[in-house]
Amino acid sequence: MKQHFDAIVVGAGPAGCACGLTLAKSGLSTLIVERGKFAGAKNMWGGVFYGPLFHQLFPDFWEEAPVERYILHHRISFLTADAALSADFFSSKFGRKPYNSFSLLRAKFDRWFADKAQQAGAIVASGLQADDLLWDGSRIVGIKAGGDELPANVVVACDGVNSILAEKAGLRKRLLPQDMKQGVKEVIQIPRQMLEQRFNLSGDEGVAWEFIGSFTKGIPGGAFIYTNKDSLSIGIVVQLSALIKNKIEANDLLEEFKEHPEVARYLSEGELVEYSAHLIPTSGRAKMPELFADGFLVAGDAAAFCLVTGLNLEGSNLAMASGMAAAEAVIQAKKKEDFSKKSLSSYSHFLKQSLVLKDLETFRKAPKFLENPRIYNVYPGLACDMAEKIFTNDGRPKKKIWKQLKRSMKGNVSLLQIASDLYNIKKAL
Amino acid sequence: MNPKKIEDKLAVNKFDVDQEVHIRIKEDICCQCKELDCLYACPAGCFTVFEDHITFSFEGCLECGSCRIVCEKEAIDWTLPRAGFGICYLYG
Ligand SMILES: Cc1cc2nc3c(=O)[nH]c(=O)nc-3n(C[C@H](O)[C@H](O)[C@H](O)COP(=O)(O)OP(=O)(O)OC[C@H]3O[C@@H](n4cnc5c(N)ncnc54)[C@H](O)[C@@H]3O)c2cc1C
Ligand code: SF4
Ligand code: SF4
Fold it and tell me: What are the extents of the domains in chain A?
């Protein structure tokens, strides 16, 4: 007879691994199915991984997990076509255990995380794809995968931003381009010593560097460079709806970014080893699908739990936290042997207790605010223009800074617009 | 080497290309389409204009889902490649 599982978790990304691990630790029979040849084979991201939550799950995980570098410097730059204004934040705290964040590569990390779930007692079936749901009337009672029917009390959909299962369960409406950002990234290999010299790093220190500016041609979004051990993750993240509206391809923007003089010098002699792309659900709380049905829960990117504040992008922690909250709801349901929608609705309660909903609530106005085109095509230019005027000595007497600012603003932005944008920053961030 | 064109970039990736096509476009709808949103949305250049109409090749697909979302005419039959096939990231 076929095994009947307490829970089938679909997807072995951060949401699915955290969910499956929590379930297995509580002694529930758990199957995690992953469509990639191995966990991580289908996944890409920036990415900076914020550690404190994970440290609670796996104390001192950095000793064992395949992390690349701990982030010691957070840098942000505003770019115009040929200039850059940068700020670098360094804290020696970031260099001490338990470290604040790490750069890491998903193909390695997800695989490690899935192994951990397996060691905790979950069965991880890689190379298996959930094609459909199994129904008993209006109840979901398992999945169809690889031509087989796999029954379970609960299915937890952790199948990412394109979640086919949330759609099949009827919990989610059609996704729209304005609710998505597209991320396109290259991994560029650079000999370790050269990389450390260029970025002024020693040992396992790393840099997370974000960029906003003219290279996105007014399209909401930005770019990043994160240092790995002997490679750079370099990419851009841009609003999908604006790409099609402006008839621009993300790869062209990425190339423009890579050619910027401030950027290009870090890439020279590097070798491309991978080109990847992925969507990010960026509408925040406003576009979240319904989260549960009879015998069914949704977590992670599939539930649009992703936090974008403009300065950072935090999806993996929210994915893990929601995966764990979903697991708690299933564990409660198992105690009552009641897997109805009503019983599983304790998921909301566990979400509220975790950081997921709190953070999404705090930044609920950020997605709208970040659509403001002035952030991308006016302010970076203004900042660079001012810096240029302050630092340039052309042999003529200098003008008052205020006068220079007014001149730079002319035709680009009014005082009233700046005031309104500042007010909105306060509200959104 | 640091290529600029999408096709050259895709050449460094690891793909296990299936015989089975996982995404199809409805050519009768596409040939009427003026927007061609898929052309700009696809990060893998899977859509190209050939003699005035859109053609699609699935081989370099990165499985991102952008085309499915942008095509308002729902002319794209979008599925995932069979398990084990398609893009296989080694870095990610
Ligand atoms: C360009 C980019 C940069 C990012 N940068 C950061 C960052 O710096 N920091 C951060 O915290 N977050 C970042 N994120 C967001 C983060 O990657 C996601 O929020 C996070 O991966 C979501 O985890 P998940 O488990 O919900 O989904 P995913 O990681 O997408 O995992 C879904 C899993 O389900 C599997 N799957 C899908 N369908 C099926 C099926 N039918 N059957 C079986 N398996 C299936 C997939 O193969 C995959 O393994 C970034 C995202 C992008 C795209
Ligand atoms: S796929 Fe959609 S957007 Fe692309 S040509 Fe066909 S109808 Fe137009
Ligand atoms: S899923 Fe993404 S990569 Fe594949 S054809 Fe569609 S847009 Fe292109």
Answer: 5-66+104-175+286-364, 178-281, 369-428
pTM of the model: 0.93
Per residue in B46-63, pLDDT (tens digit) is: 999 988 889 999 999 999
Instruction: Extract the tokens encoding A47.
Output: 């990415």
Nearest to B41 by CA among B88, B12, B75, B13: B75
SS3 A428: helix
Interface of A with B in 361-380 (CB under 8 A): none
- What is the complex's ipTM, to 2 decimals? 0.97
Interface test with B, best of A236, A258, A274 (most B CBs within 10 A): A274
> Is there an atom of ligand 1 within 6 Å of A315 CB?
yes
| Spatial CB neighbours of B69, under 8 Å, sequence gap ≥ 6 | A175, A176, A177, A180, A240, A279, B41
Q: Which residues contact A179 (CB under 8 A, 6 or more apart)?
A: A281, A282, A283, A287, A304
* A178-281 is a CATH 3.30.9.90 domain: yes
The answer to whether residues A7 and A21 touch, using CB atoms and an 8 Å cutoff, is no
- Delineate the domains of chain B, giving CATH numbers in brackets: 22-80 (3.30.70.20)
Model confidence over A175-217: pLDDT tens digits? Answer: 899 999 999 999 999 999 999 999 999 999 999 999 999 999 9
Q: Which fold has domain A5-66+104-175+286-364?
A: FAD/NAD(P)-binding domain (3.50.50)
The contact set of B with A (CB < 8 A) is: 1-4, 6, 9-10, 12-13, 16, 35, 37, 40-41, 43-45, 62-66, 68-70, 80, 82-84, 86-92
Q: Which residues contact A148 (CB under 8 A, 6 or more apart)?
A: A2
